[in-house]
Amino acid sequence: MEKPFIIGITGGSGSGKTRFLKELLSGFDGRYVTCISQDDYYRPREYQLVDKNGELNFDRPESIDYEHFASDLRALSEGKAVEKLEYTFNNPDVEPQKLVRKSAPVILVEGIFIFHYQKISELIDLKVFIDAKDYIKLQRRLKRDREERGYDADDVLYKYENHIMPSYHKYIAPYKEEADLVVPNNKDFDKALMVIRSLIDSKIIEQQ
């Protein structure tokens, strides 16, 4: 098996990374394209940093067990399978499932800090940055965290102002210039999706 082609997808919280990834994956068989997400490598709550007001801050590079993350990505790049319990966003009502990831000709790696972590960034062949205006990202974040994760609106706004945006400007936005492809996603990303799907098709054919 040839070395898999690794595509890294990043962007600020609410930029639309998850939706982009889901639509991208929907067009491919799991034998040919697999995905690994930074979200499944959050450290336990007791290891998270707190801000000046004593609030947990999950929006810093230290919140992720990036050594484990990098190790699993490298294993996939070497054709090996990996296992990991999914992260449930601290929801006690959700039972975490065991995730089994098998290697494939194309690997998608997603997360807000994947370009910041050198051990992960250096494995990526194509870097994609999903971009959106700040007010649009906030609207999406509010909707998602309230409806899907049951968070209070005031809590979401506090984290956005004190954790998410400072982290974005320090650890995420600076890597936009390093991206091979920047995808504006204020409305849709159809053209970019088509381009990347075509690239993935070509990489799959190359390895057959």
From TrEMBL:
It holds the Pfam family PRK. Transmembrane segments: none annotated. GO terms for molecular function: ATP binding; kinase activity. Signal peptide: none annotated. Residues 6-187 form the Phosphoribulokinase/uridine kinase domain. This is Uridine kinase. Keywords: Kinase, Transferase. It comes from Roseivirga misakiensis.
